[in-house]
Amino acid sequence: MSTTITINGNAVALPSDPRVSLLDFLREHLHLSGTKKGCDQGACGACTVLLDGEQRILSCLALAVQYQGRAITSVEGLAGDGQLHALQQAFIEHDGFQCGYCTPGQICSALGMEAELRRGVPSYVTDDLGLETIALSKEEVRERMSGNLCRCGAYNGIVAAVTEHHVQLHARAPAGEAS
């Protein structure tokens, strides 16, 4: 049985105290301050990280030990080779942030949202639940990102950044791989 968790590609020992939240483990034990503590009640989405690169989770509501042997990606794990992740760059280009506090959670949530689309998971506003490929309309983005609050109100920039990234992702994907 593994006593480690993989954080941003690195195996690390789980905390000895099983009551430590994943958020506190990232911020206080591993000094990864990108993931933010907003409400600490799962209502704002500032603490959103990715589980196994695809599933978005609220790290304030999760215990670190729940993810023993699994892979967690925080905003610090997205950039590579000294380059921002394409979605991070899109947030900059579309002014998808003002104070930036919610931005790490927004970005991780948007990447989780794209994984949901690839899997064909419908949202509340999806018109046809039988579709294998769900079109990413502005309404879909807004609905799927509704768990991530922005106190500054940069929603138009966030939607534009997420939409552009999705379009670029599909433009790069070989035929048959785009959602």
TrEMBL record:
Keyword tags: 2Fe-2S, Iron, Iron-sulfur, Metal-binding, Oxidoreductase
One Pfam family matching this protein: Fer2
2Fe-2S ferredoxin-type domain ranges (all copies): 1-78
Highest taxon listed in the record's lineage: Bacteria
GO molecular function, one term: metal ion binding
Protein name, per record: 2Fe-2S ferredoxin-type domain-containing protein
Organism listed in the record: Massilia timonae CCUG 45783
